[in-house]
Amino acid sequence: MGMWPLCHGNIASKERLEFAVLCDPVNVASRLESATRMVGCRCLASHSIVAAATLKNQINTSKFIAQLSEHGPISLLSRNIEILGKIL
User: Fold this and answer.
1) CA end-to-end span of the chain
2) Does the reported pTM lie above 0.85?
């Protein structure tokens, strides 16, 4: 997962109303999820989301973060984003 600003709201026509989340973070999350198959792990998290979880520390995240192993950069959306992945 990643942590960036996002846009959300209702998209509507006369026949249909949907709630949607739009913008780059949705694409990044989708690409991270797809990259799990390429890397061969269950979950990938960007450094920004791990840092945010550590900073907030609303629950004890240290035992979960300790289970993550470092992975090199993976290109997502023409960017190199450092990610952490738990490889099973």
Assistant:
1) 17
2) no
